[in-house]
What does this fold into?
Amino acid sequence: MKKVIFLFFLITFVDGFAIAIYPVSLRVIVDKSHLITYGKVLKIYPTNLQNKYNYNEIAEIETLEILKGQTQTKIIKILYQSGQVCPPHPRFTVNTNVLAFLIYEDGLCFSVSFSSGIKTMQQNEFETYKNRVFEIIEINTITDKNEQNIKIKDWALTCLSDSITKIEGVRELQRKEITNKLNFENKQQIKQLFFSNPKFDYNCDFVFADILKTDYPNEVDQILLKNLLSVDSAEISYVFEDFYSRLEHLGNRELNTQLKKEFDQYIDYEVENVNKMMSIYNAFIKNISN
It folds into this structure.
């Protein structure tokens, strides 16, 4: 089965409607939440409690601070599915603190957007997230879409400025209606992040490359090629597609297309065919480097 990692997207069907479930931006999670709370995980245990999703485990959270909504009890019981399931459900560890984005259905409590709705974090991380949550709550009330998108763009750039919330900014910058609002100074901020990053971040840097490629095509190509050269056999099946789609314009394009077709034949069985995939990877690098 093909695997997708890093900035990936899953689609499921709920009550007949196809919806995006992971990853989900902080903006969307906040908007959908009935209750947003920071709390301590007290205990985890299996349950036979009937619910329409057939979730089989409960995590009890002691409320420390509420950012949105209200609760009548200090202890909140969150239903979820244990085990390795798709889409990924939240994972709880006793005596850790979580920022929980929750909804109530039929009197029961669930996380918003599966694992995206539960974020394990320390107090200092929570303080940073708390500010961003309050800001996006306010932004979500703006009815004028153009004004709202400008505010979201500025909010995303604020997220980028802190490693704790960087990924939240990146998720907004995947939306064309937000990147269309970027001005020269905004792009300079993103350029600084992209060009100064000592280690390529698969979660963020492909998005930055897409934003910057029109204004800095050669520089972006050089950084992508440099980091493509460092991909090893354990990563190749996950990231080749991302690098290929951004570098296929280099070298002999007919050869690149042929190599991609060959690579796709092997990716479903990457363990058995990793040597073949690495051979294609090396041929691609040779072609685009000439």
